[in-house]
Structures are given as structure tokens and as C-alpha cells.
Design a protein that fits this description.
three-stranded antiparallel beta sheet, mainly beta, 52% strand, 5 strands, two-stranded antiparallel sheet, 9% helix, elongated
Length: 67
């Protein structure tokens, strides 16, 4: 008997309403097609975020701790 279950994690960034140059990092959890988003309460400049890879660019101490 074969069963299929789906599970996914994505890290996304959304820009702040007050400051368009920085954003808040969220994790999107998908289980069986149902999504939930949780804020990690971390902000960073949008220029440091790599959308394709879902992580912070660079090798600074802050970038390494977030990744």
C-alpha cells in the first residue's frame, strides 16, 4: 500500500509598510496543500535577500546566523 504525503518549507521576505528598503522574514509551511506562515521577527535590507535560494546573501556574521 502506497501513501503520499506532502510537506514543504519556504523562507520568504515581505517589505515593511513603513520602510520599503527592509523586510521581515517569514517561513511558509505547507502540509497536504494547507499553508501557514509564521514570522521569524527578523528584519533585513531587501538588497541582501536572495529570492531564488530563499536565504541571505553574503558571508557576514549576521548573514550566517540567519541562514
Amino acid at each position: 500500500m502506497r501513501t503520499t504525503h506532502t510537506f514543504g518549507l519556504q523562507f520568504i521576505i515581505r517589505s515593511n509598510k513603513n520602510d520599503q528598503n527592509s523586510g521581515i522574514i517569514y517561513v511558509r509551511i505547507t502540509i497536504e496543500g494547507q499553508r501557514a506562515e509564521i514570522s521569524l521577527k527578523k528584519t533585513l535590507p531587501l538588497s541582501l535577500w536572495n529570492n531564488a535560494r530563499g536565504k541571505v546573501n553574503g558571508s557576514s556574521k549576521d548573514a550566517k546566523s540567519l541562514n
